[in-house]
Amino acid sequence: MISRLPSWVWIGAASLAVVAGMVNVVGFLGFEHQAVTHLTGTTSLLGASIAQGQMRPALHLLLLIAAFVGGAALSGVIIQDSTLRLGRRYGVALTIEAVLLASAVPLFEHQQIAGAALAAMACGLQNAMTATYSGALVRTSHLTGMFTDLGVFLGHALRGMAVDRRRLSLCLLIISGFLLGGVIGAWLFPHLSYRTLYVPAVLTGTTGVAYFGYRLWRGPAGTLSP
Fold it and tell me: What is the pLDDT confidence band of residue 196, given thresholds at 50, 70 and 90?
């Protein structure tokens, strides 16, 4: 159970869920109509492409998977921990994510699969960066786990068992943020096209700067760990 949930976890989870929702909806509305924030559907499409002998689509899908994994690996190199805690180099990771998203825009505009790959790498970096807090998964780039937790909480409530309200609130926050990001991204896409990605890039960069400021304000003594 989450005994305490500091403000930086709430703010970071909500902001990054909005980012992921926007990035993913741009992927769906773009020329490849492909999700980039998670790999379940991508892996299924890869299997179908291989079975049908469609090697070009299969190579594109493999590139997206490799890029996502590469982003997660980059997070491991930068942050070197699987648990959220102040004092880690989240500002660096968030800045790199912002650069990746901004760099994807011109590639998307020229209908290059590399644009989707950069967006997938940014999401892999983000998803690995958030990892866990106090034993609870904090994944901001996909919602399967969040909805699974909601189902478990509902089952516990129906049996009269105690529900971890803080963890439930975190799930609802991430789901709402991802949905909000999707709504905003879908609303902006007809007006800005792929330049919509500049918005999550700015949001990610701003979150990184805010983290730097918060870390400096708290100082070494403010470091939190589960």
Answer: very high
CA-to-CA distance for 153 and 147, rounded, in angstroms? Answer: 10
Q: What is the DSSP letter of 30?
A: S
13-44 per-position pLDDT tens digit: 888 999 999 999 999 999 888 889 989 999 99
CB 126 within 8 A of CB 70: no
Distance between CA 191 and CA 198 in Å, rounded?
13
Domains along the chain with CATH numbers? 7-220 (1.20.1250)
Q: What's the sign of the alpha-carbon dihedral 32, 34, 36, 39?
A: negative
d(C-alpha 46, C-alpha 177), whole Å: 29
Q: What is the pLDDT of residues 167-179, one digit of tens each?
A: 888 889 999 999 9
Question: What are the beta bridge partners of residue 133?
Answer: 136
Q: Residue 218 and residue 224: Cα distance in Å, rounded?
A: 10
Select from 204, 199, 72 the least CA-distant residue to 139.
Answer: 72
By mean pLDDT, which of 11-20, 42-51, 136-145 is the weakest?
136-145
